[in-house]
């Protein structure tokens, strides 16, 4: 088609085999759109085009991806608010005729339907990271690392120490939006047994969200990137992690460990062992 359709917060460019979506930057643009920047959606990843009447004199053109075609939407699992739907383009009502034209043109180009056997839309690229309520999550393309925060992590997580999970040991990702109660990101492990039934604040393979911690535009692309890497079993572009830790961070962790020890939450043996581990990271 080779045409361009501009709406609020995004511009769609129609190509012979895909739709290129460029999201605008600005104070009114949803942060998720700004984080995504640009996405190319192959027509083979789509199964429906929907045109509806929007609010306040607008119309909305929406693409519906096939199940399993986009790791971002699979990770979101229907939890995104309408205004943050990256497949929805809102236009003024006076452009409804034009929107209807493009909707009809697209419908005539769609030939696929039903679940996709692989991801057809490119996932966000690593390295990615975000700050959760009880720790920092980072993904370098081959492994996920959780570094616990002394201000938010449970004593169980502090006792166990920071965690690292290879993509090859994972079977999936569970993302619960930070905009709902008990939001979290949980890594699903191949041999976890009953561990995944534990509450996220006690599960070493989970980080929990809170007000201002793990926002959608940071944690959802993160979840999608991990999910895509798990599905393909291959790394995505990565930047090597630093080999040494901040001495101030180590000192703070040892101080908090000492508080847990004095409170009787950590035994003498656990305190000595964990302190030695932390000092070894300097």
TrEMBL record:
It comes from the Bacteria. Coiled coil: none annotated. Residues 252-279 form the SHOCT domain. InterPro entries: DUF4429, SHOCT. Residues 12-106, 137-226 form the DUF4429 domain. This is Tat pathway signal sequence domain protein. It comes from Streptomyces cellostaticus.
């Amino acid at each position: 088609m080779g045409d361009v359709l501009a709406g609020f917060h995004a511009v769609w460019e129609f190509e012979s085999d895909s739709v290129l979506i460029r999201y605008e930057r600005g104070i009114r643009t949803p942060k998720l759109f700004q984080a995504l920047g640009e996405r190319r959606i192959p027509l083979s990843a789509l199964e429906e085009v929907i045109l509806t009447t929007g609010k306040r004199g607008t119309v909305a053109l929406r693409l519906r991806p096939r199940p399993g075609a986009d790791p971002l939407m699979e990770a979101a699992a229907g939890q995104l608010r309408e205004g943050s739907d990256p497949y929805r383009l809102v236009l003024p009502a006076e452009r409804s005729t034009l929107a209807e034209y493009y909707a009809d043109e697209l419908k005539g180009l769609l030939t696929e339907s039903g679940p996709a056997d692989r991801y057809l839309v490119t996932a966000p690229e690593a390295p990615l990271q975000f700050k959760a309520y009880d720790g920092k999550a980072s993904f370098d393309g081959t492994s996920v690392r959780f570094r616990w925060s002394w201000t938010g992590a449970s004593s169980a997580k502090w006792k166990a120490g920071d965690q690292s999970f290879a993509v090859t040991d994972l079977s999936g990702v569970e993302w619960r939006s930070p905009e709902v109660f008990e939001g979290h990101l949980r890594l699903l492990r191949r041999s976890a047994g009953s561990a995944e039934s534990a509450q996220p604040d006690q599960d070493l393979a989970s980080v929990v969200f809170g007000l201002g911690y793990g926002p959608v535009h940071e944690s959802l692309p993160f979840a999608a990137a991990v999910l895509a890497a798990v599905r393909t079993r291959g790394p995505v572009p990565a930047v090597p992690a630093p080999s040494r830790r901040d001495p101030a961070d180590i000192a703070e962790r040892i101080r908090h460990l000492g508080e847990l020890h004095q409170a009787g939450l950590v035994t003498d043996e656990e305190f000595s062992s964990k302190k030695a581990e932390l000092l070894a990271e300097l």
